[in-house]
Predict the 3D structure of the following.
Amino acid sequence: MRPNHDPQEGHHVPVITEDDIRALAAIRSNGALVTSCYLDVDGGRYVRPADYERALDEMVRRMRRRPEVDEAVDADIARIVDRVGAGFDRTSTRGVALFSCDAHDLFVVHELPVPVRNELVVNPTPAVGQLELVLQQSEKVAVLAADKQHARVLVYRLGELVEKVERTDDIGRDYDTVGEHDRGGVEQHREEMTHQHLRHAAELAWSVYQSTGFDHLVLAAAEGVASELEADLHPYLGERLRARLDVAPSAPEADLRRAALEAERAIEAAREAALVEELRAAVNGDGRGVAGIGPVVDALAERRVDRLLVSDGYEVEGWRCDTCDRLATVGRTCTCGAEMVAVPDLVEEAVEAALGQSCRVVVCDGNADLDVLGRVGALLRY
Ligand SMILES: [Zn+2]
């Protein structure tokens, strides 16, 4: 029987924070091996849970053939398989990261609103590279939800609420009781109060921007209110305004969160498309870009990479030199003269090398233009 799993129940654990990663990275080898598993559970790619479970089974089958998999590791793997079998709330979870080591009393599951690359590794320490990447790429999205009296600003990062403020301006219900002959004046007064409230709402968003910061702003407001709000926004916020959400300003927080996540995906896809277009122009133009895994690993060796773009799911075998750290598509003798080692996934190695050089790494999800360019490319510093 599958354990009961209700993601809405109990205290909501944040998906991932820098402290979480630090805690995992702080685990030092005591001789025991840690099993790390990343699994793509995206509902778009894997319609049924059985589909991603099959991908996990395949990784587990390969792993169990390896000599380092002893009884303890086998038990850790079984624990991970059990947890995956219990399922996830895939309306908000697209990727999961699981870490298990009984000897360290470690079993951590992070449900992520972004996809991850399937990976199963057994190492003396947890493999936190992908988690770091997820956090590094995450951006904050602020929702400004306003009607004529109430305003809320909610800031989300990776689908988690990180800041929330609200304001209510009473626009004068008492005036309902005044005499008929005063109606005109009352209406005018109400309108002025509404204008003032919307200015307050815009100011509220600006104060949140100054205290918490955010990368993108989306609005939840009715037609007339939204256009006035937009006009009231500080110019900095106007530049960050991305979309109007298809949700009522008074909607429950769960609905706003879902709409914010959807908006974030659309923003992400647009940004990826713009980057790929920049890459395409650079490759065909001034030479400040390279495409394909061979030229990319060469550029990494020369430390010329500024941003690395890679298609989600792209894997290719290759070589790594442990003497000079060079990566190559062809082995086995390195340009430094040393003998290289074969690596199962050169793309993963390139991503790690890029992160080590403090490059930005952008994993593009289903971008056909990047696939045409060779599924990987780099914008260069020079
Ligand atoms: Zn070398």
User: Anything to note?
Assistant: The chain is about 40% helix and 25% strand. The two ends are 58 Å apart (CA to CA).
